[in-house]
Structure formats: structure tokens, C-alpha cells
């Protein structure tokens, strides 16, 4: 008998809920109107404020065995003074010989090298091959250097060696280059 009464009470609650639901405007509850009007099409992006972020520092690597080097570009619309700092060493496979961005200490590289007047295996900054530019190749003589780049100018970081030489594959490792705008 108690089970029937409990069941009856449950049915009464359900019936009361259903009556209440039917008495209210069901269309408004199921499809509420937005508080703010929704635009029929997205706003014109040319009218919105354009926010541009200027990245002021970062890192990249330069592989010892890369024939093309690593490119860096000044994407700003202004001339920028940039500081580059080289960390780490390249190593010659099998010999244990290592050098940092300043290159080997045995003197000048010589004929046939990217930059014959600089040290062998030093880090060279130059315009990318095939692109004529006013920039003359320059070597890292210290672990840090500052360079002025024109708007959209591209430079390449590469190890000073004989281009397309089998020796490129004898070297391994990466230099880490930290850069920051001054």
C-alpha cells in the first residue's frame, strides 16, 4: 500500500510539472531571444583596429652541416639595430675538434671559403645566395655582434667553409643564436 502511495505522489509531481510547462510559453523557453541583436554578417575587417605585435627577441639555430645556412629577416617596416649572441660549439666528427662562432684559431680560412679573410669555421653573416644586396659578408670575431638591418632585409648565418665541399658533412652540431632588438 505504501508503494502505491509513493508512486502516486511521484506521478502527481510529474503531472504538476507537465501542466506548469504547458501553461507557459514553450516557444520562448525553447528558443529564447538573444539579449543583444546578432549581426547578420561579420563586421568589415578593414574597419576594425589592426593590432600588430613586434617580436623583440628570440632564438634560432645554425647547423654545422647546412649548405644553405639559417635565414633571419627584419619583418618590421623600419631599419632595426639587432644584437646577436652565439652560444655552443660545432664539432668535427671523429677528431674531437670543436669551435664556437669565432671559428678555429689557426688563422685565416683562405681561398675558396665563403669569407677567405676570416677564420675557418667561424659564423658568417651574409646576404642569401642568389640575392644581390649591398651587404658584404662579415664574420663573428666575438660571440656577440650588432647589425643594422633594413626593412624586410634577409641575412643568412652559415659556417665559414668551402661551399658545396664534402667537409660540410664532417662537421656536426648547432650553434644557438639569441637575438634582441636594441
Walk me through this protein's architecture:
Helices cover 15% and strands 29% of the residues. A hairpin with a 5-residue loop joins β4 and β5 (98-99). Mean pLDDT is 79; it is low at 1-7. The protein has helices at residues 2-23, 26-30, and strands spanning 57-63, 70-73, 80-87, 90-92, 98-99, 123-126, 138-139, 144-149, 154-159, 171-172, 174-181. The radius of gyration is 34 Å and the shape is elongated. The chain is α+β, with helices and mostly antiparallel strands and 182 residues long. The strands form three sheets. Strands 1-11-3-8 form a four-stranded antiparallel beta sheet, with no helix packed on it. A four-stranded antiparallel beta sheet has the order 2-9-6-7, with no helix packed on it. A three-stranded antiparallel beta sheet has the order 5-4-10, with no helix packed on it. The chain is built from two helices and eleven strands. The protein has a domain at 57-181: Jelly Rolls.
Give a short synopsis of this structure.
With 182 residues, the chain is of the alpha+beta class.
Amino acid at each position: 500500500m505504501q508503494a502505491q502511495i509513493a508512486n502516486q505522489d511521484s506521478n502527481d509531481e510529474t503531472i504538476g510539472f507537465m501542466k506548469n510547462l504547458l501553461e507557459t510559453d514553450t516557444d520562448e523557453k525553447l528558443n529564447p531571444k538573444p539579449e543583444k541583436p546578432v549581426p547578420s554578417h561579420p563586421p568589415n575587417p578593414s574597419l576594425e583596429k589592426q593590432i600588430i605585435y613586434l617580436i623583440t627577441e628570440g632564438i634560432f639555430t645554425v647547423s654545422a652541416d647546412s649548405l644553405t645556412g639559417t635565414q633571419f629577416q627584419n619583418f618590421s617596416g623600419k631599419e632595426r639595430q639587432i644584437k646577436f649572441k652565439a652560444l655552443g660549439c660545432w664539432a668535427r666528427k671523429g677528431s674531437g675538434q670543436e669551435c664556437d662562432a669565432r671559428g678555429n684559431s689557426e688563422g685565416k680560412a683562405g681561398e675558396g671559403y665563403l669569407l677567405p679573410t676570416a677564420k675557418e669555421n667561424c659564423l658568417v653573416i651574409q646576404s642569401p645566395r642568389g640575392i644581390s644586396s649591398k651587404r658584404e659578408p662579415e664574420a663573428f670575431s666575438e660571440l656577440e655582434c650588432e647589425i643594422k638591418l633594413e626593412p624586410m632585409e634577409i641575412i643568412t648565418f652559415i659556417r665559414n667553409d668551402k661551399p658545396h665541399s664534402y667537409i660540410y658533412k664532417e662537421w656536426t652540431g648547432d650553434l644557438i643564436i639569441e637575438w634582441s632588438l636594441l
